[in-house]
Amino acid sequence: MLTEIQLKNFKAWRDTKAVRFAPVTMLLxxxxxxxSTLIQSLxxxxxxxxxxxxxxxxxxxxxxxxxxxxxxDFDNVLSAGVEGEARRFELAxxxxxxxxxxxxxxxxxxxxxxxxxxxxxxxELKLGTEGFQLRVLRRDKGAFSLVVNDEVxxxxxxxxxxxxxxxxxxxxxxxxxxxxxxxxxxxxxxxRRELEELRYLGPLRRxxxxxxxxxxxxxxxxxxxxxxxxxxxxxxxxxxxxxxAKVLDGVSTWLKRMKLADRIQARQVGRSTRYELxxxxxxxxxxxxxxxxxxxxxxPVLTLAHFAxxxxxxxxxxxxxxxxxxxxxxxxxxFVETSRKRKVQFIVETHSEHLFxxxxxxxxxxxxxxxxxxxxxxxxxxxxxxxxxxxxxxxGAVNNWPEHFFGDSVGxxxxxxxxxxxxMRSDRHG
Length: 430
Fold this sequence. Notes:
By secondary structure, the protein is α+β, with helices and mostly antiparallel strands. The protein has helices at 35-49, 74-77, 171-176, 181-196, 229-238, 246-257, 293-307, 325-342, 353-364, 409-429; strands at residues 2-10, 13-15, 19-20, 24-29, 89-96, 105-114, 120-129, 132-138, 144-148, 156-158, 198-201, 212-213, 263-268, 274-281, 284-287, 313-317, 345-349, 373-381, 384-389.
């Protein structure tokens, strides 16, 4: 689970400071305020960790098939106005792993600069765990030095010590670290796993098809647009692997709680190799293409919540899109209950007042605690983003409510009352 993140000189963020991540973390705020940038920083590190090129320092994207996001070049992500030797940006996070792992907690921090050729290059990499920290510093002519803890002299220096994919070191560097080499390898592996187990679902989800060809296997992920949702549901319904129907049943349960459907089921189309997804409601069965768009758009959200492996971090942008208010509110219950039951983490970027209000209610009902959820309001101060942690007490009350957080509902009610009174007076005298 990710426990903390910090960005410096990254797009609209000069310095986020340390941002605490909880089992359920919500990012709220105005459009183009910087919410998505927090998520994008994690996607940047994930696509770097999964890059086929071991020598790459940071994978800025461009591969439409394999990359999650195209960040452009160094100057596209560096905060505006950063000049001189300060022309670097930094990405950092902390994490905790299950007790069964060799590395149970750790931290990653890396600052990046630009070479004369325009390439993004590591300037300083920090990898740490309990009682240990390694710094990898870029020196002249592309050489890197290895510094362990507070040692004055580096363990080694050379061009063949350059970091790989920002998170690991090549064999010569591991050898130079001596007894600490295996620990660094374990730490790099734990960081890689944390990034690999990050599952992202964006706000633009693919519309469903009337039927699908299925290759009789389970996908590794449902994709950033939910394209593999049907494959995951078919695998749940039809593969006999000991987990049969768990995903399908879980999705059906939440659709019913949202009052969107009674259940969903997968059916073979005749005797062909194609399958359809059928939505049942009030005794009527309908193909997924023939029901409201809200069902098809929330389906990837519900599927991912039950399909992602325990220990995963699920990152969602606007999960509430096309949902009516009740269904939006029930999403809060999904995040809280699923996080506890399946041991998955949710990081949610949302504009939904109904979702946020239900989170407050769940805290007030003692169904979750303030330490199990973290809520932030992101706003823009001129060219820079600013993050405000919302102080929520044990009864769900926000103690530092931002001005016009969800509009002025009290002001709207007052304006309606005044308008009604004015029109009634006018009608009486007319």
